[in-house]
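During the first year of the project, the team set up a workflow for recording each protein of interest as an amino acid sequence followed immediately by a discrete structure-token representation. This format lets reviewers and collaborators read both layers of information side by side without switching files. As required by the reporting guidelines, we include two representative entries from the current panel. The first entry is reproduced here exactly as it appears in our internal archive.
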Amino acid sequence: MSEETNNFEDAAMRDLENREFTASKGEISEETVKPTSLGKASSYVDRDNDEPALLPGYHEIWSTNFPSKGLFYPENARFFIRAASVKEIRHFSTINEQDPFSIDEALNEILKGCLMIRYPGKQTTFKDLREEDRIYVIMTIRELTFVNGENKIGVKKNCDECGHENEFTIGKDSFDPTILPDTIMRYYDEETRKFVIQTKSSGTIEMVAPSIGVMMEISKYIRQQQQEGRKLDQSFLKVLPYLVLDWRGLNSEKIKNLEVECMQWSDIKYQTMNKLTEMARVGVKEKMRTECEKCGTEVTTPISFPGGIKSLFVISDITGELL
């Protein structure tokens, strides 16, 4: 993206942030969606927002639809996406599906180019998106990119009751979010948008779902440790994402200091933190579900991408383009 485009976007977004925002929950109507790259979206519902589209190709999505339900963003946070461009799809096609780090980097590159987040009075980047909200946002960008169904991803599963073959079409609404238990939600603070947990022996513990920025720094730290041949403390890595409230200022040195601090915890404090991170984990369930087309019985199947992660943005079947 050119410097001129960046300046235009920043100016437009500053103007957008100064407007009073009183729209009710919803998504974008078909009429307002005008992507600049690969087509016109057709799966959005209007939010009765009469603000003009200030950024060509960008469209607002709502954090209440994310797996996190928007719990860990400021109340007035706003999210805008656009369709992936040819340049971004070409880059995505170079992904090494055997390397988890390569997959992470490729997905984050899509977000870096196609997602804008705005908090009034604060500089933001795609790194402020919560890690577990990434799949929903990626799939929504994908729907804007392939609006004519030219890159459909389907999974087939026979009904256990009647044997009928059902096909799951994977999209942004295919994933059921996990529900946070009341035992952790009772500590959710509306004002600070985080969990503030009072404990008997470990004081007050503040937690939020980890952001992409936090996970990127942790991934960098893990790779560094592996390259240096050092053994990773898996028990520490499990709780680490929840020990950091903001990715800003996080680096390998700070992570090492946190590891030293964690080693000095009492057994009860570690067990408390370990249990709290399990309860506070947001995300999506591992299985998709639908009703059998023939008998109506619920059919479930594990989430998978038959064509691999590349199939999210790379069309594997080009027969439709052949004459």
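The second entry, processed by the same pipeline in the following quarter, appears below.
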Amino acid sequence: MSSTAFEEPSTAAPLSRQQIVDLARAAHQAPSIHNTQPWRLRAHESGLDVDEDRARRLPGTDPLGRESVLSCGAALRNAEIALARLGRVPETALLPDGAAAARLAALRAGPARAPSPDLEALYRAIWERRTHRRIFMATRPRDDLLPLCAAAVAPFGARFAVLSPARRETFARIVWSAAQRQAEDDDARRELAEWTRPDRSADGVPPRALGTAPFPVDGLLARTGPRTETPPPWVHADLANGTLGVLLMPRDGRLEWLQAGRALENLLLTLTAAGLVVSFLNQAVQQEEFRPALAAVVGETGAPQIVLRIGEPLVSVPQTPRRPLTEVLSW
């Protein structure tokens, strides 16, 4: 993996059409906010460009477009892994047209290089990974999990902080307050209703993929009721099962969001390969006022990007749907 800037086309051998399709298929398996799949992939003879599809932004839930860019970063990471598995060095230029442009990354096939031994496990995890919106068990002790997570995100300039058991009550208050605030936001509720409609068949989160856990893990699935300062007992009970962690970047901008997406997907694939499952608790990072408290509760500085809950599965869960590849890939 490399992140570089390039102006001239790669002099390495071009990819076949099928190889480029394979990269695009891998990218298209990435997680995204409400499964909006906010990316467009443009094929070239030596790789792919990853563009943000701004028509799929969620202004109520994601007003700055942070999670949209982050989702595209996850798609980029999948394509990088797929390219490395083909025996080529991934050469990636981030924001090649500037920070404001829709094109977020240009991925090109560099020189030949034999895949690393652990690459096959990450590639398999692209197809096995699921957002686990159901109840699951606690996982290994915090001190055992932290090195695995830290190593997965470090190459992208990110940090992963695991919540200590002593701070769970404070964490629950932050997430509960953020969830209540989001429940009162008409735009956020409208977006959630739109992207969880039962008739969605190619994107969004259909009923079969929604959670059985009482606490909202991937989005606010129902109104939380009258505002209260203290989280109900079921919030504490649900958060007790699993390791809680926050992915942070040192700064907050489109480059950092893109890198956070790459780091997130690398982490999710690493955990999947280890037999673990993950759900999201992003209400607090989706609202700017709660982000400083979120960093403080895990004892970190910087900009929180994603909140994860990690555990061991009790049941398997279905994959969320994907649009036909022809809708996201152009030549």
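For the second entry, the following points were noted during internal review. Residues 2-129 form a domain with the NADH Oxidase fold (CATH 3.40.109.10). The longest strand covers residues 303-313. Both points are flagged for discussion at the upcoming steering committee meeting.
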